[in-house]
Design goal:
The chain is mainly alpha-helical. It has one domain. The chain has helices at 3-16, 18-42, 45-54, 59-70, 77-81, 83-86, 88-119, 123-132, 137-166, 169-176, 180-190, 195-204, 206-222, 225-261, 263-268. Helix 13 packs antiparallel against helix 14 (225-261). The longest helix has 37 residues, at 225-261.
Length: 269
């Protein structure tokens, strides 16, 4: 699979439809931010619920990308932007399973990491130091910051690994109406021999993604809540313009190329 040509083709398609793709992706991103923020404010179980609710919202990116590639229908901000809500029941059966698997693996990974850390730490000694005031608030803040980074890194790694296996699931839902666990199993089957190609495609967009990630991270830690809200929106605009829209187009092209390479196997699914 020639990744370079695929990226070049995605760039051509993105540039030809840049304005409408940008608006649709921004529409979806704002809804995602609002629901996530509501979940964070309410806290507890609502934060977890928001995680599962927002997952299907991104499917509008796939439908919009298919439209600009096939040129069979004009982009519709409301239709494509609200795709995750309109088709929520249909989409949730696939995206919900992916989120659940990610969540289970994340908690298992964090449990293992923290068990290892605590196993090498004198917890009683640390507690005594805290009570005696030997550890300052700044030090405590740094510890919490490190733990947050560990959780964030674990989440990113797990999502990346599961994506290598379950990448095709949302596209099978869109093209073959295969959903739920069946789409996940079919994706694992189709991705045999293509995970390396997907990784190489992701590397093409790593630089802008890393820039936006660190901007988001430093904004979260060094800006006030209100300033971070504005900074978060600005970073979202930057993400969509720099790589997200073109990346999604490239992913659709990647899936279509897999279909062509394993046409017989794809027809059996």
């Amino acid at each position: 699979m020639k990744i370079r040509k695929l990226v070049e083709r995605s760039s051509e398609i993105f540039m030809a439809n840049r304005k409408m793709l940008f608006i649709v992706f921004l529409y979806i991103a704002i809804m995602h931010m609002l629901i996530s923020e509501i979940g964070t404010v309410l806290g507890g179980l609502f934060t977890l619920m928001a995680l599962f609710i927002v997952a299907p919202l991104y499917h509008g990116r796939i439908t919009a990308s298919y439209k600009v590639i096939k040129q069979d229908a004009p982009l519709d901000i409301r239709m494509d932007g609200l795709c995750g809500f309109v088709r929520f029941k249909e989409l949730f059966s696939t995206y919900g399973w992916i989120e659940l698997i990610n969540l289970i693996l994340l908690y298992l990974a964090l449990f293992g990491i923290y068990a290892l850390v605590l196993g090498e730490t004198n917890v009683l000694g640390l507690e005594a130091s805290l009570l005696s005031g030997k550890v300052s608030e700044i030090a405590l803040y740094r510890v919490v910051q490190i733990l947050y980074l560990i959780a964030l890194a674990a989440d990113l790694v797990i999502r990346w690994l599961t994506n290598l296996f379950f990448f095709a699931a949302p596209y099978l839902l869109e093209t073959r109406q295969i959903r739920g666990l069946a789409s996940l199993k079919a994706s694992v089957r189709l991705m045999r021999g293509h995970k390396r190609d997907l990784f190489l495609l992701q590397l093409r967009f790593l630089a802008p993604a890393a820039i936006c990630f660190f901007l988001n991270y430093f904004s979260a830690y060094y800006l006030s809540a209100w300033l971070y809200s504005f900074a978060g929106l600005a970073i979202t605009l930057l993400e969509i313009y720099l790589y997200q829209a073109q990346y999604q187009v490239a992913l659709v092209l990647f899936f279509e190329q897999i279909k062509e390479e394993v046409q017989d196997e794809f027809n059996e699914i």
